Each structure stands twice: as C-alpha cells, then as structure tokens.
Amino acid sequence: MPRLEPSPDSLVPQLAGGLFILVRGVGEIASAVAHALFRAGFAVAMHEASAPTSCRRRMSFVDAFFDGTARLEEVLAWRVGTLAQLNRLLDSRAAVPLLTMDFDTVLAARRPGVLVDARMRKRAPSEPQRGIAPLSIGIGPGFVAGETVDVVIESAWGDRLGDILWQGSAQPYVGEPQRVGGYGRERFVYTPHSGLFRSPCQMGDLVQAGDVIAHVGGTALRAPLTGHLRGLTRSGVPVQAGAKVIEVIPAGVEVQMSGLGWRPKRIAEGVLQAIEWLHLPRAARTDPDMDRAVTATAAPTSTGPKGWSSAKANEKPTT
After folding, report:
1. How far apart are CA 3 and CA 234, in angstroms?
2. 37-73 as b/e, with b when 16 or more CB fall inside 10 Å?
3. Could you read off the pLDDT of 109-155 as tens digits, one per residue?
4. In degrees to the nearest 10, what's the CA dihedral of 24, 27, 32, 35?
C-alpha cells in the first residue's frame, strides 16, 4: 500500500518535541485534543485570543486563560505571553503552552506544521484554514475536507463520532444534547442577550430550581432545575446572545463532573490518528495497526485514506 510521508523539503517545522502543532480554541474539545497530542509526545500549543465563554471549565484548560495555569488529568496548561516563553515551554515539556496574542502574530513568528481548528463554532461559518499549515484539520460542521481544510473530524454523537473524513463535511449541528437524568437542553441556560456575565457561584455548587445563578447586564439567569453546577462560564467574561453559560446536572444523577469527557476523547483520538498516519513512521504510532484498518475500509488516495474511522469504545455513555 502506498505510504504518505512528509517530503524531504516539507515546510513542517521541527522543534525539540518534534512536529509543532497549533490547536485553535481552549474549550472541552480543544483541550482534549491538546491533551492527547501532548501525551503522545508532540510539541503542541493552544491559541485563544479572547476570553473564552466555555462553561465546562473543570473539563478543559479554560481557566489557564484567566489564572495562568490549569490542570486537566495530570497535564498542565500554562498561559504564555511571548514566543520566547513558548519555545522554552515546548523544549521543557513542562506544560501545554496557551498563546493569547493575535493569531496572525503567532503565524508570522512560528508557522505550525499542523493546524487544528477546535473552536467548535457550531452554526457560524468557519473561515478557510487550508494553506495556513501543511496539514489543516477542522473539527465538526462548518468545514469541508479538501476545500476549507485538509481533514475533517466528525463531532456528532453516533457511530461516526471521531471519524476521519478526507472528503466532504461532518454532520450538521442539530443542537440537541444527550439526555442526562431525563433532561436534555432543559439543563442548560443560554444568554438572552449580549453583556457581561457575572456570577457569585462556583463549579459544583448545589443549586435549587429558580435560584439566581448569574446576571448578564441587568438580567437574572436562574437555575432551570435542582442539582449541581457542572457548567459555569467564568465570571466577568463578555458573552454574546445565545451563549451557553450554565449547566445543571439533576440532583441524584451520577455523571462525570471533571476531567476528559468521553466525546472529547473520541474526537481527540481521531485527530491524533490522522496526524500520526500522515507524519509518523508506522513503528512510532500509538496505533501501529492503523495501516491495516485503512486497508480494510478503503484504498488510500493522494490525500489520505478515505472513510477510515477511529477506534470506538464498546459502550457509549450518555454524556
């Protein structure tokens, strides 16, 4: 079977930790991707230029943007303000660097070998990423493999979650979350208008249905049901109308409240395997049997294997 390896004159930058990968975003999905790539030994950094509104802060590196550091399942993220700090952190592998300067500034100083757009902008159209790096990967809807990016990773719940798509798009965003304790969208609170989000509450707090959890401007946001706060946007952050800022897990329901979620991990596996297939020799891959999986599903093309799916767990949790 033909092998896809970087050409000798590849533009892929080589740092102390190997291939330099830049992940756009710092939410749940982006954090899981950066976490997986870091654990696999890649030189990876994250980028987020504006205050993130992601509410599942204990399941991501979001708080590193505000506090300077955040830990997610034994991996540390560290906000850096200069490219010199970035290089030192990549060399030491003490943490995943989080860059907060303008994106164009980063690109002008350090062009990545792989760019992963994990901002999960849902219905918002995504600007073309193809050509920014030798390999560009878009997660979820809004990207077209072979047009706006080189590779798309499926993000929708279902049998295709984490699939590597070398042509076409991911499934469209439907907006219906998995149900937990009988509640779906009802357990979330979305902002009715733009404004400054402020809350005295903390992640994990027990709240009663109807309690005022936060304010956006002069508008009170109340708990939709009784339970514990799994999602809470950082207080003091500007938010746009329709932003998801609060999640309440129903009282008495046991679900994961922190750490890497099942869905983000499956998506991260797809990203890792796509990068490894294209850039690492077979012996160095975390899944050395990937070639066999590719052969079993479809013949490779000049841009990669078509229809190859990342490995799935035997059981799928509800959230």
Report:
1. 46
2. bbbbebbbbbbbeebbbbbbbbbbbbbbbeeeebebe
3. 899 999 999 999 876 677 888 999 999 999 988 899 999 999 999 99
4. 70
Query: How many of the other CB atoms lie within 10 Å of CB of 290?
Result: 20
pTM for the model: 0.83
For 166-182, give the DSSP string: SSB-PPPP---PPPBTT
Of 217, 173, 170, 174, nearest to 198 by C-alpha is 217
Say how many Å lie between the first and final Cα of the chain, rounded: 38
**Are residues 46 and 77 in contact, defined by beta-carbon separation less than 8 angstroms?**
yes
Which is it for strands 43-47 and 18-24: parallel, antiparallel or unpaired? parallel
| CA 294, 298, 303, 307 torsion-angle sign | negative
pLDDT at residue 18 in the model: 64
**What's residue 287's pLDDT?**
52
Q: What is the pLDDT of residues 252-267, one digit of tens each?
A: 999 999 999 999 999 9
- Residue holding tokens 């999640």? 247
Residue corresponding to tokens 């799935």: 312
